[in-house]
Automatic annotation (TrEMBL):
Chain ranges passing through the membrane: 41-60, 72-97, 109-129
Keywords tagged on the record: Lipid metabolism, Membrane, Oxidoreductase, Transmembrane, Transmembrane helix
Protein name in UniProt: Fatty acid hydroxylase domain-containing protein
A Pfam family recorded for this sequence: FA_hydroxylase
Protein topology in the membrane: Multi-pass membrane protein
Gene Ontology MF, one: glyceryl-ether monooxygenase activity
Main location: membrane
GO biological process, one term: lipid biosynthetic process
Domain Fatty acid hydroxylase: 113-250
GO cellular component: endomembrane system; membrane
Localization terms from the record: Endomembrane system
Length: 331
């Protein structure tokens, strides 16, 4: 009976309906007017879309079985590890850094816009470094390993990536005066939309979303981000607002002439949990061990993926630059 109760708890937890069920069973419908009640309605959206997407993939006979299987294993593994590692990084950083904030924004709509722009900048930093620093790429690569795009990719993360991301995003926001209440609201919106942009073609064939494609980051933009095509590599680091990608020159629209190839450039078995989850750490370890001298060993850790001490290497930036230059020569 205890096993069944635990299984039921895990299922409701995955679906995000545990708090919703508590409110409905208590008959406390007024709770839906509170932040807690609103989140109880929002959390189930993505898990239910995942199940809908999986159902449609079976109908369209495009099940992407390997992707769903590995991402499910990653979700289960992270849940088990999470029981023993509880990192209240956000709360800890708020307490430590709030006294050092440059100023304190007010809870108004215009300050909310400011807060979201700051959050997006912090997200850009974490995400950019996750692609440009080899050690951070080891944390982030699990998310890029799937060779197809669907909502289950949302759950494909190395368990230490969230603390790394939250450290940067929370620190920047708090020091720039974003109040905790506003920060939590932004995190809710960002987390929900950040999951949605992983929607696959089985559920949304054209991810451009019409005119919104020129205003915000759409599933189309994020599909580009997950691609390993030279033109698409290391682009579109933002999550909702396009502002920072436009400012820093990392924005890339989807090109209809270039079919997206998902995954990472390292040769790997995307259906093997161990390779997907730990493969980049193994590759980094081998490079560090085989590198001559302490300087080269350290450079493998903080240089971009693809860097090699021999000087014969191609990083994502070089590959993209060469592709663009060659394309321009053909025109």
């Amino acid at each position: 009976m205890e096993f069944l109760n635990n299984l039921f708890s895990e299922i409701t937890g995955f679906l995000g309906i545990d708090r919703l069920m508590e409110i409905l069973s208590a008959g406390d419908y007024a709770a839906f007017k509170t932040y807690d009640g609103i989140t109880s309605l929002i959390f189930p959206i993505i898990p239910l879309l995942v199940l809908l997407e999986l159902g449609l993939s079976l109908i369209y006979k495009k099940p992407q079985t390997k992707v769903y299987k590995v991402n499910f294993l990653i979700y289960v593994f992270n849940r088990i590890v999470g029981r023993f590692i509880a990192i209240a990084m956000v709360v800890l950083l708020i307490g430590l850094l709030e006294p050092y904030a440059l100023f304190h924004a007010e809870l108004t709509w215009y300050w909310f816009i400011y807060g979201y722009i700051v959050w997006e900048f912090a997200h850009f930093l974490y995400h950019y470094w996750g692609h440009k620093v080899r050690l951070f790429w080891c944390l982030h690569a699990t998310h890029h390993a799937p060779e197809d795009m669907n909502l289950s990719v949302t759950y494909a993360h190395f368990f230490l990536e969230a603390p790394y991301a939250d450290t940067i995003r929370t620190a920047v926001c708090i020091l720039m005066g974003v109040p905790p209440e506003m920060l939590f609201a932004i995190m809710l919106i960002d987390g929900t939309y950040g999951a949605f942009i992983h929607v696959g073609e089985n559920l949304m064939k054209d991810g451009r979303m019409g005119f919104l494609n020129k205003i915000i980051l759409t599933p189309s933009h994020h599909r580009v981000h997950h691609a390993k095509n030279p033109l698409y590599m290391d682009t579109n680091f933002c999550n909702l607002l396009l502002i920072w990608d436009k400012i820093f020159g990392t924005f890339q629209d989807e090109d209809d002439k270039i079919e997206i190839e998902y995954g990472i450039t390292r040769k790997m078995d995307s259906g093997n949990f161990m390779d997907v989850y730990f493969g980049e750490f193994v590759a980094l370890y081998k490079d560090v061990v085989n590198a001559p001298g302490l300087k080269n060993k350290l450079m493998y850790i903080y240089k971009p993926p693809g860097w090699h001490h021999s000087g014969e290497y191609q990083t994502a930036r070089q590959l993209r630059k060469e592709f663009i230059e060659n394309n321009e020569l053909k025109k």
